[in-house]
Design goal:
- It is built from 4 helices and 5 strands, in the order βααααββββ.
- Strands 1-3-4-5-2 form a 5-stranded antiparallel beta sheet, with helices on one face.
- It has helices spanning 25-35, 40-43, 45-50, 60-74; strands spanning 14-19, 78-87, 98-109, 112-122, 128-138.
- By secondary structure, it is of the alpha+beta class.
Length: 139
């Protein structure tokens, strides 16, 4: 991690991409336990297949967690004030997810140094699986 200076941040700057290893079935199960969400489409292969899917899929919140990690790695001196996301596509076992971000606004509000970012997570096919926005305060 590094510290960033508010005055050096420019609209249009990209934050470093965070690339994760392929999503595994074990990881999906562990995430289900961590968030206490054992929805059958995430853990029951036979049920997922009976509903016409190729199998289980990961929680969308997994991609959200990667966005948060990418923001924290971008600047250790930035506090996440707000983050919102919308899920775009299912995340399958074997998907390689990459979180990316772009500075969309840099400003001051009540003596707080703030940045707004556009965030997105892509799979290995460059399909966007999650879109989001964040506001961070740079300390």
């Amino acid at each position: 991690m590094a510290k960033v200076a508010h005055k050096s941040i420019k609209v249009g700057d990209l934050i470093p991409a965070l690339v994760r290893s392929p999503v595994s079935r074990v990881q999906i199960s562990q995430f289900a336990a961590a968030v206490n969400d054992f929805g059958p489409m995430h853990v029951d292969e036979q049920l997922a297949k009976s509903k016409g899917l190729s199998g289980i899929f990961a929680h969308g919140q997994l991609a959200f967690a990667y966005c948060e990690q990418a923001l924290r790695q971008y600047a250790e001196n930035a506090e996440i004030v707000q983050i919102t996301t919308t899920f775009q596509k299912l995340i399958w076992p074997g998907d390689i997810l990459t979180c990316k971000g772009l500075i969309s606004k840099c400003y001051q509000s009540k003596k707080r140094k703030l940045i707004d970012l556009e965030l997105w997570v892509e799979n290995q096919n460059q399909d966007v699986v999650l879109k989001g926005k964040a506001t961070c305060e740079v300390k």
